[in-house]
Write a structure and sequence with these properties.
mainly alpha
Length: 130
């Protein structure tokens, strides 16, 4: 079961992403969910969670719509683009007034460290669950 609080979901996803970064079976490609291609599985942020937490094997094509955790996975896809308001909508919740609807998040391919730092910044800003 994935965290339902956005800040905990972000932290969880970043941990999964870091595990996948060190796994030779995977390629980080934010344009994919969980897509095997030429012997490697291409995953985005949500795909990393699918692989690590939901135990989807690298040779399996998977999209969030096939899983009970769909809402959280869609929220991660929104968050990787800085679309915080949409992430709340993905979870069927209202965005608090003190949380911005949008924040800049750089493309992972351009700067993985900054991508992760910006998502951490969003998680710290939200602090839905302590």
């Amino acid at each position: 079961m994935l965290p339902s609080c956005l800040n905990l979901l972000i932290e969880h996803a970043l941990n999964c992403l870091e595990q996948i970064e060190g796994d030779s079976n995977y390629v980080i490609n934010m344009e994919h969910w969980h897509t095997p291609t030429k012997g490697k599985c291409h995953v985005g942020l949500a795909g990393a969670v699918m692989a690590v937490s939901l135990s989807i094997m690298p040779d399996v094509i998977c999209k969030p719509y096939e899983l009970p955790e769909c809402d959280q996975l869609l929220a991660l896809a929104s968050l990787r683009l800085g679309e915080i308001g949409r992430a709340y909508e993905d979870l069927g919740r209202l965005r608090p007034d003190n949380v911005p609807a949008l924040m800049y998040v750089p493309n992972y391919a351009d700067n993985p460290a900054l991508f992760k730092a910006k998502l951490e910044e969003i998680a710290n800003l939200i602090q839905e669950c302590q």
